[in-house]
Design brief:
heterodimer; A: alpha/beta; Rossmann fold; Arc Repressor Mutant, subunit A; 5-stranded parallel sheet; 4-stranded antiparallel sheet; 41% helix; B: alpha+beta; 5-stranded mixed sheet; 10 helices; 18% strand
Amino acid sequence: MRLLVVEDEPDLLTGLLRALRKDGYAVDSAADGEEGLHKALSTDYDAIVLDVMLPLLDGWELLARLRKKKSTPVLMLTARDRSADRVRGLDSGADDYLVKPFDLPELRARLRALIRRSAQQARPVVQIGDVCIDTAARTVTRAGAPVFLTAREFVMLEYLARHQGEVVTRTDLYEHLFDESEETQSNLLDVHVFNLRKKLGTEFIVTRRGHGYCIE
Amino acid sequence: MNFPRSIRWKLQLWYGGLLLLLLAGFGFTAYQLESARQLRHIDEELQQRLPMLVDSQRPIPGDRDRRQFRLSTRDALLFDQTGNESFYYVVWLKHGEPVTRSTTAPEDVPQPKAGDPPNRLRGDVRESFLFPGPGDCVLVGRSIAPDLAGLRQFAWWLCAVGVTVFAAGLAGGGWLIIKALRPIQTISAAAQSIATGDLSQRIQTQDTESELGQLATVLNTTFARLEASFSRQSRFTADAAHELRTPLAVILLQSQNGLAADHLTEEQREAFLATQRAAQRMRRLIESLLTLARLDSGELSDNRAPCELNRVAEETVRLLQPLAAEHGASLTTELAPAHCVGNADELAQVVTNLVGNALVHNRSGVSVHVKVLIEDQHAVLTVRDTGQGIAPADISHLFERFYRVEKARTTAGGHTGLGLAITQAIVTAHGGMIVAESRVGEGTVMTVRLPLALRGADST
């Protein structure tokens, strides 16, 4: 899951990056509206956390320009909370709206819901065979027994599960699992896939040679 | 209206007094002038007759020193004995017939002394006299009773006219005063509604040149500045609260991040928890300030719909039951249907704040009774508790911002000190009022009165 956080307050930005990366998300950042728009247009993010008050290009304008080309889920973050502002935000294409100061657990939950909705899954629990993935609690069980995954492994599993039945290319996985700041080694994916297979069964993730991976 | 104190009645009284004085002065002068004129006319008539009396002295035949008085027949006609203006004469001669008088003359006319003024008034008789020679005296007189009667009639007539003019003057003056004071009533009405909180109210003036028009203009300018400064203040509060949100978000986020970190010492955990608690309290404070600023600016007033106060209370109380259970309190209701117009969320906030206060600020085991009824065309919500009560000194400050009854535990329970201020602001914004009554040791009753919805609104 790859996110973009557009926020001009540096301390808030680093805090958000740390918190979201801790959850296993790959998170890119932008400190102003133009950079944010550029990144939002050039990468397929799973969700964007967008501050309203931004230098160069404010959140409304960014959202309006983004919506002409992409339907990436957007969660607006703002210090204004009059209902008129909320209406404006939702009407101009924001998918959710959170007022500063926010509780981290709430932000996490809203982001999960946003990503879930954009993958057209209403329920937070995904059941594949005897493997049960609870995206809200971020836990995985196999035949009722808990399976312990690292954050990155969980995100990879979640991404594959969200695209169940589809072949997910290695490029897709790179795009959604690693952010711009990470020096990714090409075999890192193989390591995560190896670990997931070890924990969930060899047949759980199928390799389509030359194409990518798939959960059937 | 306060009769003796009101400007209108004072003016009327002064005006009436002045008018009365002027009329009396005028009437008195007119009477005096008229009576003087008549007297002068009478004197002229009398004096016209004197010379012929002087000429009527003739020497007594055979006695050269002595004279007698004989009036010619033609002259005697001037002393008509039967007419209304009956003149008489009396003549005293030193040498000759001592006293000669006309038949109409009274018996007891005293002889004037030399050096007396030429006219005199005896009762209702006017007399003029002349001294043709030493010791001689000629007097003409007449009764002025008819003239006096005429003057009395004139006086009555003056009185009648005076009373009429006075009455007309009073009525006209009263009308003028009312007309002149009407702008003051307009001003006072506008000021009144500004005093009750409607700062957008202005005095309607067409005429800006008159003194009151200028006053109204000055007042309107003052009102506009008042409104501007008030809205500036509430905008400032709102802006400040907004500006505080981002740094607060940083504090909250970083403390929550910190708590989520691995390998925290107990000390670090405590520090992060304390930071987080403080941040949460600031957050509630900011939200409360924003709510107040919004209520002050009247921003929420458009969000109105008919709602049932009893339903609002019922639902809110149901949500508060767990809190009551937590405090070992009993929370009961007695709800009669009451429709009013308002924002259900805000009204729920009122119920929450009042019930919450009753639960939180009292010892456990308190019983809280929520009642909704209709009384005097108002929807009335009362929240009655059997708690420790509030001291009379605190009651009057209860709705002030940041006022806390329990000063020692200012921040316990995360209360902002704005709850009742918000409650009052909401109630006021709904056109209602809130009253607190309490007896120490017995409990507190909070009463909220809201205007009932009109009949038409009930059906919707």
